[in-house]
């Protein structure tokens, strides 16, 4: 940090650097980029010294930022915000791509047409293209907020049209077939130990009745379930814990899957992505046996959310349990939000009689 001070002459009776009322030369003191700075501004006017100092700071900040440096700063900020590993992976891919295309350019030199040319190389589905473009926009929004550029060139890029298919929960019949498949898992795979069958059953029941993502469920520590059978989800911004009670069937299944380690479904030492992939493959075998060809682990979370909405829970409450915003819940579960609204209207109409 730089500051002004007078460097008093031998003939000046004052010696304090903080004293301004004499006419001794004005100097700059402090540090810049980790180096000690002591420099004369060649003026005795304090007002002129302030002008020169402001100009020096302004000139430093106006040094053009390269795309490579900006991308590195953006990714470092994402890491500092403690984003989820899955999000950081996508941010890292976008950082690498932007650096590969424009790394040697100054940030201000990147145009909307440059970004269109980059997008033309993407061999992605419309939905994935839309999400990738959102991350690119996030990068340039970060640059605008940092005062490195004035406008976001990615805002001029129109996203592809995506036909949103509604999130589908498991039906009651499908869930019954899935439970039957869990009971017969060892018959399907005779070489699989009984321990694995119990863990798989506990994992799927946990996800169905808690709304956890599979990565969060596989990495669940035992200490997150209290003596009342409530699962700690996360700490809300108000400082209060967000918890969800688990039914006895889930607690019993977890107790059967307890083999004396700190985790139910993971050893805690390997990369979490490895056991997540393994458990996903096992779930797919169950879904095939239950004749649910489009079954996947995330539908357990969807079933949890839709069941709450159909039973009268508010969008805000469901969003809190899922760790999402009400807008996200409204977007992904809109058909069931509408059905809930219709039920409320029917209740109101009954009061008219």
Secondary structure layout plus pairing:
Layout (H helix, E strand, L loop, with lengths): L1 E5 L19 E7 L2 E6 L5 H16 L5 H14 L4 H18 L9 H9 L5 H20 L26 H12 L1 H4 L5 H17 L3 H5 L11 E6 L5 E5 L2 H9 L16 H17 L8 H13 L4 H8 L3 H7 L1 H17 L3
Antiparallel strand pairs: 1-2, 2-3, 4-5
Helix pairs in contact: 2-3, 3-5, 8-10, 8-12, 13-14
Main sheet attributes: strand count, strand direction, barrel closure:
3 strands, antiparallel
* Mean pLDDT rating: 88
The number of distinct β-strands equals 5
Q: What radius of gyration results from the CA coordinates?
A: 30 Å
The number of distinct helices, counting runs of at least 4 residues, comes to 15
**Strand ordering within the main sheet:** 1-2-3
Proportion in β-strands: 5-15%
Indicate the structural class.
Answer: mainly alpha
Low-confidence stretches: none
Task: Determine the fraction of residues in helical runs and give it as a percent range.
Answer: 40-55%
Silhouette:
elongated
Provide a descriptive summary of the structure in words.
This protein is mainly alpha-helical and 353 residues long. The protein contains 15 helices and 5 strands. The strands form 2 sheets. A 3-stranded antiparallel beta sheet has the order 1-2-3, with helices on one face. The chain has a two-stranded antiparallel sheet with strand order 4-5. Helix 2 runs antiparallel to helix 3 (85-102) and helix 3 crosses helix 5 (126-145). The chain starts with a strand and ends with a helix. The mean pLDDT is 88.
């Amino acid at each position: 940090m730089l500051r002004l001070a007078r460097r008093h002459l031998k003939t000046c009776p004052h010696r304090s650097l903080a004293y301004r009322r004499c006419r001794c030369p004005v100097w700059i003191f402090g540090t810049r980029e980790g180096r000690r700075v002591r420099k004369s501004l060649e003026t005795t006017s304090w007002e002129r010294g302030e002008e020169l100092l402001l100009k020096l700071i302004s000139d430093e900040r106006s040094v053009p930022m390269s795309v490579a440096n900006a991308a590195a700063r953006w990714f470092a900020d994402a890491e500092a915000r403690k984003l989820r590993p899955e999000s950081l992976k996508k941010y890292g891919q976008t950082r690498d791509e932007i650096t590969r295309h424009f790394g040697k350019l100054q940030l201000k030199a990147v145009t909307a047409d440059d970004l269109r040319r980059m997008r033309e190389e993407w061999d992605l589905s419309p939905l994935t293209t839309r999400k990738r473009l959102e991350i690119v926009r996030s990068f340039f929004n970060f640059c605008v907020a940092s005062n490195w550029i004035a406008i976001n060139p990615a805002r001029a890029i129109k996203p592809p049209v995506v036909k949103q298919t509604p999130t589908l929960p498991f039906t009651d019949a499908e869930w019954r077939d899935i439970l039957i498949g869990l009971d017969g898992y060892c018959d399907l795979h005779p070489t699989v130990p009984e321990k694995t069958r119990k863990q798989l059953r506990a994992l799927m029941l946990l996800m169905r009745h808690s709304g956890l993502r599979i990565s969060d469920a596989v990495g669940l520590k035992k200490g997150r379930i209290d003596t009342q059978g409530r699962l700690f989800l996360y700490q809300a911004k108000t400082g209060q814990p967000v918890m969800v009670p688990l039914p006895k069937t889930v607690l019993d299944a977890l107790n059967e899957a307890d083999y004396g380690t700190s985790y139910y479904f993971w050893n805690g030492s390997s990369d979490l992505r490895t056991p997540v992939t393994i458990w996903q493959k096992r779930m797919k075998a169950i879904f095939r046996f239950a004749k649910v060809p489009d079954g996947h682990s995330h539908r357990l979370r969807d079933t949890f959310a839709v069941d709450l909405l159909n039973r009268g829970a508010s969008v805000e409450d469901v969003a809190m349990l899922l760790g999402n915003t009400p807008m996200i819940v409204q977007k992904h579960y809109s058909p069931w939000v509408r059905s809930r609204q219709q039920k409320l209207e029917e209740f109101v109409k009954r009061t008219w009689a």
